[in-house]
Amino acid sequence: MSVHVDWRASLAVTGTVIKYLALTMLVPLGTAVVYGEDLWVFAVTMALTVGVGLGLERLDPEPDLGPREATLLVAIAWLAVAVIGAIPYLLAGWGTSSTLAQPVNALFESTSGFTTTGATVMGEISTDQHSHALLIWRQLSQWLGGMGIIVLMVAILPELAINGAQLLQAEAPGPELQKLTPKIAETARALWLVYFGFTLLYVLLLYGLHLAGQAPNMGLYNAVAHGFTTLPTGGFSPEADSIAAFSAAVQWLVIPFMVVAGTNFALFWAVLQGDWRRMAGDTEFRAYAGALAVFTAILSAVLYLGTAPSLGALGGTTDGVIGNSLRHGAFQIASLLTSTGYATSDFAQWGPAGEMTILIAMFVGGSAGSTGGGIKVIRWVIAIKAVRRELLTSAHPDAVKPVRLRGYVVDEDAVRGVLVFTFLYLFVFAVATLLITLDAARIGYELSGYEAMSASLATIGNIGPGFGSLGPFGSYLEFPRTTKLLMVFLMWFGRLEIIPVLLVFTGAFWRR
Q1: Which residues are CB-contacts of 433 (< 8 A; sequence separation ≥ 6)?
Q2: Alpha carbon distances (Å) from 121 to 92, 113, 451, 507
Q3: What 3-state DSSP class applies to 405?
Q4: What contacts 30, CB < 8 A, 6 or more positions away?
Q5: How does pLDDT run across 259-270, given as a tens digit for each residue?
Q6: Of 14, 354, 397, 406, which is least surrounded by CB within 10 A?
């Protein structure tokens, strides 16, 4: 077979991405200096990262990316970054009994970070068990992956701006890429500017609560650490108890920022340009807000009426107080519908009604152009409209009913693409559930069908926690290595929304 994809060019640009990733390690390196922990870990990692990046760049000094090379670059770069990101975990665990000393566990944790999944195999999470520097790297990896590593590279590297539209289309979450400015590099910078602005505001507000005495344990370190993982809908926390470790005031503050993170960032750019009506009139945003409101109302009612037997050991009970029910309900729906994965209590103990409400919400996902995972609201909107059209045309065969969105007719190729993606997503979810169940049975690991489903959905949807032993205060540590590797691929597939990854495994992609 004659190969007609310039893989050397893709690998060379991947080298550039890896080389610049080393610069981001200055953050954990600085943290290591401040706390006097793991300084050598990040010094060595930075040197290795630069070396690998420079080596790959030499494969093609002047890479020229076409559409297929851009797709290959995005798929390879995300996997390569996850591998590089695992090095600090391995070095920090070297010669110890740490679970992260095992390469598969380190790769799982790194992939979960960069894909903003939030699933963990770390076991006990605290600064007593792991260094401040390693934990801040864990947090930072989610912030880098949230808006997109390739989007960041397009924003700062002029040579990538030439092929920027192709790269962003392959990486951007959702079925469409909205160009905010005439130049694609300016669009990438605009997205990162909004992202950074919300992160900074959030950190300042969290630390402000601490200074005001409303959040005693939300010091500057914790404020920055959670700023790195809320806006990317990541869900990692340096606290083993997640957001349950903090006061109700912190929990109320986190909710609107998770909602923001699941909103199309292009709408915020429009608001900054003075176009307030665009957000209010956006079909997807209205559907997203409606889904949040409906699921929150249902779950809050379940908690208030006592259908859920307990809020768990950490959350206590609602004590018949509607405010407590509303806070826990709103928090958990915002967290899992947007794929953030934070928790204020162990929702795995909320009983069938609570769990089923949460499970359905997990299938929804955030908006296109947000940092949220899942199928995405816009796809559900288009799919529902397509189903309604089919019902109409079945009753009236001569009727012509195009699918409309935001006042425009949606191209039939786009409708078909949405339906194909949704089918692929559900198909991969089902197959992965079966494989996880079979692999657990192979080693005698007790896993219910419900837990297997939640594990599959939580990884391909980049959500993080599941049910049972995989709940918000549990971990994926006990799964066999083969299942963890499967989940690494599921997280990779989910972050790049399946199609770009599947493409590189087809023969047609490589042939003329």
Answers
A1: 449, 452, 453, 455, 456
A2: 15, 12, 16, 35
A3: strand
A4: none
A5: 999 999 889 988
A6: 397
DSSP 404: E
Half-sphere exposure (Cβ direction) of 10: Cα atoms closer than 13 Å: 22
User: Which DSSP string do the residues of 51-84 spell out, in sequence order?
Assistant: HHHHHHHTT-SS----HHHHHHHHHHHHHHHHHH
Q: Residue 411 carries which DSSP code?
A: P
Q: Which amino acid is at 177?
A: L
Q: Is the pLDDT at 114 greater than 80, yes or no?
A: yes
At residue 409, what are phi and psi to the nearest 5 degrees? -75, 130
How far is 431 from 81, CA to CA, in rounded Å? 26
How much is the pLDDT for 316?
A: 44
And the tokens for 353?
A: 């009604």
In SS3 terms, 307-339 reads as CCCCCHHHHCCCCCCHHHHHHHHHHHHHHHHCC
Distance CA 26, CA 412 (A): 47
Alpha helices in 183-273 (DSSP H): 184-211, 220-230, 248-261, 265-272
Give the residue carrying structure tokens 């947000």. Answer: 370
Q: Is the pTM of this model over 0.70?
A: yes
Per-residue b or e along 386-411, where b marks 16 or more CB atoms closer than 10 Å to that residue's CB? beebeeeeeeeeeeeeebebeeeebe
> Measuring CA to CA, which residue among 382, 352, 348, 387 is closest to residue 367?
382
Please enumerate in sequence order all residues whose Cβ is within 8 A of that of 377, keeping only pairs 6 or more positions apart, or say none: 284, 287, 288, 291, 364, 365, 366, 367, 368
Q: How far is CA 452 from the centre of its chain?
A: 20
Helix 265-272 and helix 184-211, axial crossing angle in degrees, nearest 10: 90
- Angular region, 236: left φ>0, alpha ψ -120 to 50, beta rest: beta
DSSP character string of 138-183: HHHHHHHHHH-HHHHHHHH-HHHHTTHHHHHHHHSSSS-----SSS
Q: Tokens 């920022």 correspond to what residue?
A: 257
Q: What 3-state class would DSSP assign to 269?
A: helix
**CB-CB contact of 354 with 310 (8 Å):** no
